[in-house]
Specification:
With 537 residues, the chain is mostly beta strands. It contains seven helices and 32 strands.
Length: 537
């Protein structure tokens, strides 16, 4: 049952709610065009569609509580009016609630230490999976391509949530077709809560769905008759339109007070640099509260932050002194994309492959925020200390080097490995309980790579030879930015840069557990920029 935002009874603490087979409901992604809506000049005038908020918008829902039976997500193709004109062929995980309502890619809630039980029924017509991105799980529950779910089959993922509070996400991860299936729509968000997180919400006075929002940021490439198009085998698949929670050109009506935005980059390849401007295009500072694996020890004041594919950031805006009618724009501010791989491999024509798409690194307006006159905005005090979680650097960690590079043929490599050349075999083993330092060096003749680790989280212990746009954000002698000071599962490595990460391979599972380490540019992953490794006793 869908409930209005702010209803105290709608808080989800545990995944559950039995479901059955489902069908799509027309109008789920329908847009409301309002010519003449207000906006800051020509740029803002197109932002007229109310942002869809899970739990408050028809069909864009949340997981229901209770029931040991868990929830059932069934894949399917659901024609939806994403743009003016013809329906788009959206692929989605669909849940049918006990009330009969259908939710597509519902936002799932869980409590740290609680249980997750989700059954996938595959009706997509090809192999698929659910990968629990960022969550610490065993091999069978990881949802990688090692354990595909065939069309017509089902699989139940059941595990304890061993992670701190944070924004995580789930998405398809079949070998060779991850880019296609995620671009078509098979992805959703997971919100994990714990005592530290709930204490922060209480201190600030935040209300979920009103001034505390989870945002899925994904660009899509639209073709003829609004069909979502993707070319298997292409490189760096970017779209001509960025959708926020499946909303084209969104506007969010914000109360005066604190506004918390938890962003997940669910795009295939597009890298954003998130910032905020006022109506005079003056950059507005914000507080970075957390990253992939939850809250930082304290908030850091920033003006922009990189958000690579697969990464998440937790941002707090201060709107307490704003007046009703004031406008802000969330955007991807211009940055140097450092795509130094030009001329390697088969030639490509960006304009032909991605008609209408903005090149990487260009300034892009993403979402209009309009301050309204509704009372009751969040106005509590921001705590000096957000988390007591200690992130110590182990100088005695075993070191393991990795090199990211591209062959003249255009094949991306990790050291001398490519997943296809290795025929999917594990390329090394790690002793369970050990702590390792991975030094990830990206060739200068390369591009930024968001490197994602399955099954474990890491901390950044240092950056070296970083480009200026990273050095300018560094705040400690190790070259780390505020974004590097939290728990991560996806780390962005720029051309010419070496990023060192520390990983604790302790886990409660026994036997041989296999995982992936890969670039989260999904086309790179599908082309084999991925390795398998095993954790053993």
């Amino acid at each position: 049952m869908e409930q209005a935002p702010g209803n105290p009874g709608r808080r989800r603490l545990l995944l559950g709610g039995a479901a059955a087979g489902v069908a799509a409901a027309a109008g789920y992604f329908g847009l409301k065009y309002r010519p003449g809506a207000h906006g800051p000049g020509h740029e803002g005038s197109r932002f007229v569609n109310p942002l869809r908020i899970p739990g408050a918008t028809a069909r864009l829902g949340e997981a229901s509580d209770a029931a040991d039976a868990g929830i059932v997500l069934q894949t399917g193709i659901h024609p939806q009016p994403l743009r003016e004109g013809a329906l788009s062929d959206v692929w989605a995980y669909a849940q049918k609630t006990s009330s009969g309502a259908v939710q597509l890619n519902p936002t799932l809630f869980a409590r740290s230490g609680g249980k997750v039980k989700v059954t996938l029924e595959n009706r997509i017509g090809d192999d698929t999976t659910i990968h629990w991105h960022g969550l610490t799980v065993d091999e069978l529950n990881d949802g990688s391509g090692l354990h595909p779910v065939r069309h017509g089959a089902s699989q139940t993922y059941e595990f304890e949530v061993r992670n701190r509070a944070g924004l995580y996400w789930y998405h398809a991860h079949p070998h060779g077709q991850t880019g296609l299936q995620v671009h078509k729509g098979l992805a959703g968000l997971v919100v994990v809560e714990d005592d530290e997180e709930l204490a922060l919400q209480k201190a600030l006075g935040l209300t979920w769905g009103v001034d505390d929002l989870a945002l899925s940021v994904a660009d899509k490439q639209f073709g003829l008759r609004n069909k979502i198009v993707h070319e298997v085998g292409a490189d760096d698949w970017v779209g001509d339109k960025v959708l926020i929670n499946w909303t084209q050109d969104p506007v969010f009506e914000a109360r005066r007070g604190w506004l918390r935005l938890r962003l997940a980059n669910t795009s295939n390849a597009r890298l954003y640099c998130i910032g905020f401007d006022d109506e005079d295009r003056q950059r507005l500072p914000f507080h970075l509260l957390g990253t992939d694996g939850g809250l930082l020890d304290r908030a850091h004041r920033m003006e922009s932050v990189f958000l690579g594919p697969g990464q998440r950031i937790d941002i707090l805006l201060d709107l307490r002194e704003y007046r009703p009618g004031d406008l802000l724009m969330m955007r991807s501010v211009a940055y140097d994309p450092m795509e130094n791989d030009a001329g390697i491999g088969p030639p490509e024509d960006f304009a032909m492959e991605h008609p209408g798409a903005m090149p990487m690194g260009e300034d892009m307006a993403l979402m209009l925020i309009r301050v309204n006159d509704k009372p009751g905005g969040a106005s509590g005090a921001l705590p000096e200390r957000l988390s007591l979680h200690a992130l110590g650097v182990r100088e005695d960690a075993v070191r393991r080097p990795f090199r990211l590079w591209i062959q003249d043929s255009g094949r991306w490599m990790i050291n001398h490995w490519n997943y296809h050349l290795a025929h999917g075999s594990d390329v090394f083993e790690i002793k369970r309980g050990s702590v390792e330092r991975w030094d990830i060096t990206n060739d200068m003749r390369s591009m930024p790579h968001p490197m994602h680790l399955h099954g474990f989280q890491c901390i950044v212990t240092g950056r070296a030879n970083s480009p200026k746009q990273v050095v300018d954000r560094a705040i400690d002698p190790r070259g780390r930015t505020p974004q590097d000071l939290g728990m991560l599962d996806t780390v962005l490595v720029w051309p010419g840069e070496t990023v060192s990460i520390q990983i604790d391979f302790s886990q409660p599972y026994s036997g041989r557990q296999r995982y992936m380490f890969h670039c989260h540019n999904l086309e790179h992953e599908d082309q084999g920029m991925m390795i398998g490794f095993a954790v053993v006793d």
